[in-house]
Amino acid sequence: MMKYVGTAVAVALGGAVFTAPAMAQNEQFIPALVYRTGAYAPNGVPFANGIADYYKLVNARDNGINGVRIVTEECEFGYATDRGVECYERLKKNGPTGAAYVIPLSTGVTFALTEKTTTDQIPIISMGYGRSESRDGSVFQWNFPLLGTYWTASDIILQHIAKKEGGFDKLKGKKIALVYHDSPYGKEPIALLTERAKRHGFETMFLPVTHPGVEQKATWLQIRQNRPDYVLLWGWGVMNSTAIKEAVAVGYPREKLYGVWWSGAEPDVRPAEDGAKGYNAVTLQHTAGQFKLHEDLKKFIYDKSAGSAKWEETGEILYVRGLINAMLGVEAIRTAQAKFGNKPMTGAQVRWGLENLNITEARIKELGFEGVMKPIKVTCADHEGARTGRIQTWDGKNWQITSDWYVSDDNVIGPMVKEAAAKYAAEKKITPGCLTN
Amino acid sequence: MLYREAGQFKTSYRSDQAIFPIVQDRWFMWGLIAFGFLVLPLFANQYLYTEVLIPVLILSLAAIGLNILTGYCGQLSLGTGGFMAVGAYASYNLLLRLPDTNLIVVFLFGGLMAMLVGVLFGIPSLRIKGFYLAVATLASQFFLEWVFARVKWFTNYAPSGSVAVANLDLFGFPIQTPQQKYLFVLAVVVVLGFAAKNLVRGRIGRMWMAMRDMDIAAEIIGIRPLHAKLSAFAVSSFYIGVAGALWAFLRLGSWEPLAFDINRSFQILFMVIIGGLGSILGSFLGAAFIVLIPIFLNQAPGLLGVPLSTAMISHLEFMIFGVMIVFFLIVEPHGFARLWAIAKEKLRLWPFPY
Fold first, then answer.
1. Across the interface, do A81 and B258 touch by the CB < 8 Å criterion?
2. What is the ipTM of this complex?
3. Cα(A425)–Cα(A404) distance, rounded to whole angstroms?
4. Are residues B193 and B293 in the same domain?
């Protein structure tokens, strides 16, 4: 009997694979890879909500992008790389023109998709994550680590530390530790820290934490023994709040603890309560808080109770980050439409739009993102577009910006990108070059 | 009626000892292989290849490997992920350092390296049994994961620890599109699957089963425990190593040690348990169940047109999947393979059961 159940399931499954939902022709499909469950859900949920709400807003307020309505479908992958790739494969052909772009929100999935998107002709927007060398658009033609990479983020933290100490020459003999998520994501900044350490003569300590990062006693014991002058935190999800609690437990001053943007949102600091006071994080441009765009969000979405989140949550850092990320994608489609016509764009056309994305100060104001972000201009040589960031500090209730704008030092990062990209191109037998359309 | 062996006389030892002594089984097998090689490629799309067929086939191979060790020889192992990683990284390093090596040699090398490591970690099995051995193999899992995450040489000093392969070919034929990858994986699985099936019904397999059923009795009738247990570890690790290399090269393309973590070990152990301990067929059924049901459950609400939030679907997927596992284990503790055997018995008598 059970056998027949199995057969029925298999047949149903087989059927599932071949049916594609019917769609109207004037729609732009954008897949959404999300994680609303699992160890990383506290961070995954606000980000996914921000993205979903921005698409809803564009549809409700402007009737889509130049009349082309956005259709999106979420696929839950729980931050597991293999399930993320499965989601991508499932959704990439949907809609009349296939997926416009993909936002993996996972360094692991970004790594895995980098190989696939080239043949599928779908650009990846990995805003602030992914391979740092993927900024080189002549080798990584389909990758767009917009608004900064891990190398940019770690360089900004080091610049801030140097400024506090009175210059990079004062860092000599200091000890800087990196507590990182033991995955490609966490290992990304090591190359930059090593390079900077060589230049300025500070010592580095690299302390890996295994996924999901709830067990960090040994790591923080090492920190207590070695007393590094600064600790950089490259954590994600529950690992961040655990790290801050452990820092409290071993009495490491939170003022000397600097997180990357993945470690600098509300869910990371709230569980540590007062212990998190004074903790710093780099933010690639934006911070928490509502801004001009929220007037529209309220009018078109939340007053009709169609929002994905609660209204109070729409000022959270990761929600805002989702808004920005969706906005950049939508603007890329708009840029592509200016060249190819007001119709649904293919992945290749969106790629052109991303590579020619130029959001000026005036445009930022029009879009309602004034004061949240700086202008961004993408070129083939620079898929990052902007390399600015600030340091924010948790005051026990809110994130406060506590520094000026920094720009990562391209004299340091530039050659590293070149070298790493050339190595990648040689391994993969890619001939570097810019795509023209 | 259809499935009846009456009239099938075995007139030689050869026919009596065939892998599939029943004609219907033999034809079914040939039909299935022909279907896999000839018919499926006619209509399968990319999603079916990359997310259904390739993962199921590769994990079936790993499950066969673990089944040889756990199901046939009775040595519980939790180190499957680690041995898969050995296969993957050994193959990667061979291809990296000698780029012109034939792909078959690359995968064999991965299997052989995993075999060596497996034998090494199998040595404690001569002294410890059962749950204690599970703990020892668990140590190998963590140790191997640690080695590939920390010893930079294995990952060619990649800054992120993530390695990748691309542009594979075999005798000049490219293995790059999902279809080519699928056909290659299928060929490997068919060859190794038949090899395993033959192995377990011969002298070596009987030796393992004797060891599993009662090691002291086996020793008394002249089976050397060292030989039996270590050969099981060797063969099992070889299969797992090849599966690991296939998984890394043809499924993932770019991977990190996390792809072979403890969860992978558990996943494959569950495949073996659900599919049926001591059954080659069970390895395939278990792999298909564990890989496909979650994907199906995840898509079902959308296909049925039930609007549910993404998080809800995901939670439901976990719950229903868990319930299904419990249900099947209650209904048939010996796994799908036993269900199949019962169905076969019934089919033999149908339509006149007595």
1. yes
2. 0.80
3. 37
4. yes
